[in-house]
Amino acid sequence: MSIQQIVSPTRYIGRGKPRRTRKDIEIYCCSECGTYLTGWTQNNTAPQHCSNTMRKVEPIPNDQLDPALQIDYKIKGSLNNNCIIVTWGRVRPEWILMESFRGSQFFYVENSYKEVFALAGTDAYAYCDKDPCAECSFRCKRGFAIYAMLPGIGIVKREIDRISSDKG
After folding, report:
1. Do 103 and 113 share a structural domain?
2. Within this chain, do residues 32 and 64 fall inside the same structural domain, yes or no?
């Protein structure tokens, strides 16, 4: 009798832990109309919008916010069907951007209490098969980051690198 292993099309089947090899994503804001632009620029040249040079935005580290306002996450799915669920405190974000090994995903937040970012390819790398993630010292998603535009606060950045203090 054979045991068939089910492998999701989103499962990472490569060798070794992937790494993010580029610099952090850049966020720019137009001082005239308030439009945001995210991406990576060449030669550190700021983009133009409304006939003006956009200003580079430095995100606020999540841990500098009151705990009731912080962005949080949970990694679900184990080896198959990986995702990151992003939640927030008292202030609902206008938008959330998740930076990963392969690039980024951007969502406008609708009338919900969470956003789910599906992962595939190298972004779906997992060391173990625990669901939810045990947040062990291996930190499979180290290098990922969440950026959230919180009205009245600004853009907040949350690194995805937490290690659980639970020894059980």
Report:
1. yes
2. no
Identify residue 145 by its one-letter amino acid code. A
For residue 162 the two structure tokens come to 């937490």
Q: Which two tokens stand for residue 101?
A: 């090994």
Clarify whether residues 82 and 140 are in a common domain.
yes
The pair of three-digit structure tokens given for residue 113, joined into one six-digit string: 């209490």
Domain range for residue 28?
23-58
What pLDDT, in 10s, does the model give residues 59-112? 999 999 999 999 999 999 888 888 999 999 999 999 999 999 988 999 999 888
Residue 75 burial (CB < 10 Å; 0-12/13-18/19+)?
buried
Say whether both 42 and 114 belong to one domain. no
* CB within 8 Å of 119: residues ≥ 6 apart: 10, 77, 82, 83, 84, 100
